[in-house]
Amino acid sequence: MHHHAYLWTGPKDRFDQEALRRPPHPEPPPPGSRPELIQRYREVAAAFPASDLPPLETAYWLVKPAALVRGTWDDAADAAAWLGERLAEYAHRFASEVTRDADRYVRSAAQRLAAGADVSLGFYLERPSYLSLALVTCSPNRDQPTLPCPRP
Questions:
Q1: What is the mean pLDDT of residues 120-147?
Q2: % the chain with pLDDT above 70
Q3: Residue 19, Cβ density class (10 Å: 0-12 exposed, 13-18 middle, ≥19 buried)
Q4: Residue 133 forms beta bridges with which residues?
């Protein structure tokens, strides 16, 4: 088991585009469906894996481009330390007081990762930006065991 780190920051209104953050339905529209439905399915199926937007389900980071991986660790504590470093790095941009809870976030992340769970945190930055941090357990992922590992 190992853990991959992901970070996204950008405009809050882009983050709110939930249709771009959902994976396509596992089954394509049935034959004879409306052409616009088939076209929309094709667009989502092509755009979702290529998009840098955080997926609604944390495990789906694994289908995103491997270039989005910010780090990979075998040890849960090391992965959680990365999270703490990012919290410190962005602390001056938080819209609310988060730094006092940084140690709690890191401890909780280390425990969750060691248990095989994923960690996903999101914070408002100065308006109107958003920061998404994720640590995804891999080989296999507990929630989505069929998703591929981005590690070469």
A1: 93
A2: 97
A3: exposed
A4: 7, 121
Both tokens assigned to 61: 């980071």
Provide the 3-class DSSP secondary structure of residue 138.
strand
DSSP string for 4-66? EEEEEEEEHHHHT-GGGGSPPPSSPPPTT--HHHHHHHHHHHHHHHH--SPPSSGGGGGGS-G
pTM score over 0.85: yes
Residue 118 to residue 112: CA distance in whole angstroms? 7
Looking at residue 86, the DSSP 8-state letter turns out to be H
Helix (H) or strand (E) holding 149: none
Task: Take residue 3 and report the two structure tokens written for it.
Answer: 């853990």
